[in-house]
Amino acid sequence: MSEIVTTSPIPTATESPVGRINATAPSSATAAPLLAIEGLTYTYRESPTAPQTVALRNISLSVTAGQVLAIIGPSRSGKSTLLRLINRLQELSCDGELQGSIRLDGHDVYAPDMDPYKLRREIGFTFDKPQALDMSIRDNVTFGPRMAGERSRAALDPLVEEMLRAVSLWDEVKDRLDTNGLALSGGQKQRLAIARSLALRPKLLLLDEPCSALDPISTARIEETLMQIKTQTACILVTNNTKQASRVADTTAFFLMAELVECGPTWRLFTAPADTRTDDYLAGRFG
Amino acid sequence: MSTQHNVLQNNARMNRLGINISRAMTGLVSTILVAILLFLLVKGLGRMSVEFLTEAPVDLGRGGGVFPIIVSTALLCLVALAIAVPLGVGTAVYLTEYTREGWGTTIIRFGAECLAGIPSIIFGLFGFMLFVVWMGLGWSILSGGLTLACMVLPTIIRTSEEAIRAVPPIVRAVGLSLGATQSQVIWQIVLPQARNGILTGVILALGRVIGETACVIFTTGISIEMPSSLFDSARSLAVHFYLLAREGISLPMAYTTALLLTLLILFMNSLAAWLMPRRQG
Lengths: 287, 281
What we know:
CATH superfamily of the largest domain in chain B: MetI-like
CATH topology of chain A: Rossmann fold
Radius of gyration of chain B: 24 Å
Oligomer: heterodimer
Shape of chain A: globular
Largest interface: A-B, 26 and 17 residues
Order of helices and strands of chain B: HHEEHHHHHHHHH
Distance between the termini of chain A: 50 Å
Number of helices of chain A: 12
Low-confidence stretches of chain B: none
Number of domains of chain A: 1
Structural class of chain B: mainly alpha
Number of strands of chain A: 10
Shape of chain B: flat
CATH architecture of chain A: 3-Layer(aba) Sandwich
Order of helices and strands of chain A: HEEEHHEEHEHHHHEHEHEEHH
Number of domains of chain B: 2
Largest sheet of chain A: 6 strands, mixed
Strand order of the largest sheet of chain B: 1-2
Helix content of chain B: over 70%
Distance between the termini of chain B: 52 Å
Number of helices of chain B: 11
Radius of gyration of chain A: 19 Å
CATH topology of the largest domain in chain B: MetI-like fold
Helix content of chain A: 25-40%
Strand order of the largest sheet of chain A: 6-7-8-3-9-10
CATH class of chain A: Alpha Beta
CATH superfamily of chain A: P-loop containing nucleotide triphosphate hydrolases
Mean pLDDT of chain B: 88
Mean pLDDT of chain A: 85
Largest sheet of chain B: 2 strands, antiparallel
């Protein structure tokens, strides 16, 4: 398992210690999108007696490797639900009904033979409230690989530095790796959370309004981090901050009331939206 | 002008009165505690010595020390906690992590609450019938430990449940999002984060076990000898105190035993209090 120590955050064709969904398929040289969502409709009941709520209606989207896709839109438009469906966190808290398909590298995420634990190692997730686990900074970073069965310090120790450098947190914490992660500031915790997800070398990182609880300086740091990591890990960034989308995203999708209104290159969406609703939202006329 | 002045003055007076009443009550409560401690110190400190802690009792406890009784008490606590902690924490984990709230959990919780309200002497009788007689364990540390475990189980379930519930749900989601299984999340994240709350409950339970008398007499007996195994009858410090005082064997030795017992429980509770505020992490 020495590859994990020496290679860059993306494994090429090597098998990482945490396993891959498709270990044989090389991650580059394929024109197919990394993530392909087709005709996705998701309905659920908030309580057993409540009427069916449509959280997402007929969504089709794709993400290519090396890209940041931003999803913008007012709250309760289904953005976060979409993220939680992609890495199958949604099913843990809520029984809903799903139509359509989500494919990661061509593999159906909801196929019966898909291991959701393996899938979640492939797809990182960062929550809106910065969350450090109640353990040392070092253990925070290595949590994913350790749970996947990696025990050797020779593999884990270099990972800590590499991942903390990737989120520019290394210089701030390198002298106190064994202090509790809870002692960090909000912005630092959020970068720690990203480092923790990256430690599993995911193909895709989902970020659910990662800067909504952060000050502008911490926000800028997170944005820089995303720009740096996207070449290795594609990102989907859900944000309420349209400016943030325009700063970091290659592609932007606009969600409104469970529907995808439009999706296109960020510059095009912001300068010449095709739909008047997008125009209205960006101009702050509603939402 | 003057009415307003009067109202203000009245408010201030009422406020002062309220403060003084609560001060007086707090003072009274502390006085009781200090009085008990002083009483025990005055009556019991004279016989407190290294020999008292390290020697066997002589002449039914009129002389010598209480070393075998300390050992028996420790063994009782050990057995009780070795059984009650895994059972209690396991139940708490089940109630909080593996089930949804429903009539099942309500019944279990209600049952535990009722169990907590049963007088300890009833537990003693139950332990006597079940462990001593029916299971044939006789008067023994094992019977006593099992009975005490039943007695403190509700406390441990309750405090563990609260401690586990205090761990925010999003922490579990973070663990799961990193590919951990539910049991990994519970063992690696939730329980470590709830450890201080759980430990507080365990120490409070330990305090009850140390101080328990009625149910120990019924199940462990009153043998004053050093126990050679868990199947031997033995006596705890609380039982020893009761017999010394009740049978009029030796009041001075009873007071010294009481002092030791009280100091032990005080120490346990201080430990619990010291752990408690850190629960928030």
